[in-house]
From TrEMBL:
Family: Belongs to the GTP cyclohydrolase I type 2/NIF3 family.
Source organism of this protein record: Promicromonospora soli
Record protein name field: GTP cyclohydrolase 1 type 2 homolog
Disordered: region residues: 1-28
Keyword annotations from UniProtKB, A to Z: Metal-binding
Subunit relationships: Homohexamer.
GO molecular function, one term: metal ion binding
SUPFAM superfamilies according to UniProt: NIF3 (NGG1p interacting factor 3)-like
Amino acids binding a divalent metal cation: H92, H93, D131, H289, E293
Assigned GO CC terms: cytoplasm
Length: 334
């Protein structure tokens, strides 16, 4: 697993409380200022109504010198954040997506909060608001698999557009049209046509290694020229993929019945129409949930650092290298 370190400041304090030498004029932001920058990049108003995003724990007045980004707020990531001396942990997945009746330290989720607060580390979540954002989860995945001339698979219900050029890292998006439309997923053209099997191999090579690996559904030798991607669970967007006429769809957590029905319908309609080209599109490429969302973390590090630097602040931000996919092994079937 790769580690991405964006060292904007090298004068972070030690965990023993010693202060950095700010004689060079460096300034560290408060937690409130970092949250403001994150909300500028990933507005909470663009999150799905069922989601739980934003600041989970922490003192808005506290100084922030180190920020760790990770996909999941699991124990191993908390250990890493505290060992590194992070002042803020930003995760993609919420700790409290479903309600709890207690955050006592004797409960799993309560212990996470207590350990973070005791260690002086805040917790912030950017979930579906990061999925939909320019240079968010969908764009990061689209970049990795080589999608150009892209657009959202499904535009945000609010139809919001935002000029984020002030908040992006210098040079970010050079040669790539991220656009300003917020929405779930991305769809566009591949730089070069390829076979379905070749495309699946490209996806597997670009993503973090997991026990699941990458699986696909369709003729391995069929050529694909257009692709749709959606990081995380994506079989609820099959209608949008069909409407976009994508040859192949990359997502995660594909369930048996929705996937089977999509492929059966695609092949039936292709035969009935006598359509040319690859039979039975869209084909499917199923990845591990964690793996499809991890690439965004690098963009988040770069863009947060750029937004804070534009405001005169310095932080040290890092991407967690820990694999938090829950599956640890696989036995091939005979």
């Amino acid at each position: 697993m790769r580690t991405t370190l964006h060292r904007v400041s090298s004068d972070a304090p030690a965990r023993d409380g010693s202060r950095p030498d700010n004689s060079s004029g460096t300034a560290h932001p408060t937690l409130a200022q970092v949250v403001g920058a994150l909300d500028g990049l990933y507005p909470p108003s663009t999150a799905e109504g069922w989601d739980a995003v934003g600041l989970v724990a922490g003192d808005p007045a506290a100084a922030v010198r180190k920020v760790l980004f990770a996909v999941d707020p699991v124990t191993a990531v908390v250990d890493q954040a505290l060992d590194w001396g992070a002042d803020l942990l930003v995760t993609h997945h919420p700790l409290f997506l479903r309600g709890v009746s207690s955050v006592a330290a004797t409960t799993f989720k309560g212990s996470v909060v207590h350990r973070l607060l005791t260690g002086g580390c805040a917790l912030h979540v950017a979930h579906t608001n990061a999925d939909a954002a320019p240079r968010g989860v969908a764009d990061a995945l689209a970049d990795l698999v080589g999608i150009t001339d892209r657009r959202p698979l499904e535009v945000s219900a609010a139809g919001e557009t935002h000029d984020l050029s002030h908040g992006l890292a210098p040079g970010a998006g050079h040669g790539t049209d991220y656009g300003t439309d917020r929405g779930i997923g991305r769809v566009g053209r591949l730089a070069e046509p390829t076979t379905l099997a070749g495309f699946a191999r490209r996806v597997a090579a670009a993503l973090p290694a997991t026990a699941q690996g990458v699986r696909f559904s369709g003729d391995p030798d069929a050529m694909v020229t257009t692709a749709a991607v959606l990081g995380g669970s994506g079989d609820g967007y099959f209608d949008a993929v069909r409407a976009a006429a994508a040859d192949v769809y990359v997502t995660s957590d594909l369930r048996h019945h929705p996937a089977s029905e999509l492929r059966e319908r695609a092949e039936f309609e292709s035969r009935a129409a006598g359509a040319p080209g690859p039979a039975g599109t869209p084909f499917l490429v199923d990845t591990a949930h964690y793996a499809s969302e991890w690439p965004w973390l690098r963009y988040a590090v770069e863009d947060l650092a750029a937004a804070l630097a534009a405001a005169g602040f310095t932080v040290e931000a890092r991407v967690s290298e820990l694999v938090t996919d829950p599956w640890t092994g696989q036995v091939p079937s005979r």
